């Protein structure tokens, strides 16, 4: 989220991980997350943004539920040395 706030950009994988956490870990309304991203993304695309959020919330055209990312597995797979986390958070989180 620090990357998004500072640059207006986040990778698609990052966007999906954030959406999963926002919806499934925090139990927040996906529409609030989609709106926030709409306001901050410099490469905002209505279909990609709202589609990703709906997909992870299990609503819309493909309403299969529980599309929850395992945050620990995602971190181990895509940032095993914590370099991305260190850059944007200022300290490694295990």
Could you walk me through the main structural features you see in this protein, from its secondary elements to its overall organization?
Helix content is 62%, strand content 0%. The chain contains 6 helices and no strands. It has helices spanning 2-7, 12-25, 30-40, 46-57, 71-78, 83-89.
Q: Give the beta-strand count.
A: 0
Please, what is the average pLDDT?
88
Along the chain, the helix and strand elements come as HHHHHH
Low-pLDDT runs? none
Cα end-to-end separation = 18 Å
> Radius of gyration over alpha carbons?
13 Å
Portion in strands: under 5%
- Helix percent reads 55-70%
Number of helices: 6
- How does the helix and strand content classify structurally? mainly alpha
How would the global form be characterised?
A: globular
Major sheet: size, sense and barrel closure?
none
Task: Quickly describe the structure.
With 94 residues, the protein is mainly α.
What tags apply to this protein structure?
94 residues, mainly alpha, 6 helices, 62% helix
Outline the fold blueprint:
Blueprint: H1 2-7, H2 12-25, H3 30-40, H4 46-57, H5 71-78, H6 83-89
């Amino acid at each position: 989220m620090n990357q998004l706030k500072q640059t207006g950009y986040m990778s698609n994988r990052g966007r999906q991980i954030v959406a999963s956490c926002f919806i499934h870990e925090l139990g927040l309304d996906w529409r609030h997350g989609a709106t926030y991203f709409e306001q901050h993304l410099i490469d905002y695309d209505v279909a990609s943004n709202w589609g990703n959020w709906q997909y992870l919330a299990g609503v819309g055209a493909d309403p299969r539920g529980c599309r929850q990312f395992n945050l620990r597995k995602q971190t181990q797979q895509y940032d095993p040395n914590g370099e991305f986390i260190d850059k944007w958070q200022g300290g490694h989180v295990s």
